[in-house]
Design goal:
This protein has 152 residues and is mostly helical. The chain has seven helices and no strands. InterPro entries: Sig_transdc_resp-reg_C-effctor (IPR016032), Tscrpt_reg_LuxR_C (IPR000792), WH-like_DNA-bd_sf (IPR036388).
């Protein structure tokens, strides 16, 4: 059943998912496949729907696992060393990016990463940003008022 869904994917959709699996954003994928980043988003969205995945990461993971999986041979003799990395179905994850101050505070990432948040998660992120801005504005007002008191 999964093989049928993967067979429905076009070559461009598979290529976009492979590049997404390596941690690239749509803006980074676009020049490599010769499309705009909006078109890349559409290809990935359609592939996600076809595969029945929740988000682009899941769709990329499903494709990578399906492409790296090897059919099981029932009566095959196994070698004594089973930890051979060539037979492993584990896909290497991209190296973790360094955590920035913005991420430590809990604010959403800045820049071209596509967001796949639900409506509730988006509202929560907006509320966190508003709270952070309110604290920052209050601090600026207090500091400037203190400066005026000291200088006058």
């Amino acid at each position: 059943m999964l093989e049928d869904r993967i067979a429905k994917l076009s070559d461009v959709q598979k290529q976009c998912l492979r590049l997404a699996a390596s941690g690239r954003s749509s803006k980074e994928i676009a020049p490599e496949v010769g499309l705009s980043h909006q078109t890349v988003d559409q290809y990935i969205h359609r592939a996600r729907v076809t595969l029945g995945a929740e988000n682009r990461r899941d769709a990329a993971r499903i494709l990578m696992e399906a492409e790296s999986a090897q059919p099981f041979k029932q009566f095959e003799l196994k070698p004594s060393r089973l930890d051979d990395p060539q037979d492993s179905a584990i896909v290497d994850l991209p190296a973790a990016e360094p955590v920035t101050l913005v991420e430590r505070i809990g604010l959403p990432p800045i820049g071209g990463k596509t967001n796949d948040l639900t409506v509730q998660q988006r509202l929560y992120a907006i509320a966190r940003i508003a709270f952070f801005l309110m604290i920052t504005a209050t601090a600026i007002i207090i500091i400037s008022k203190g400066a005026f008191v000291v200088l006058s």
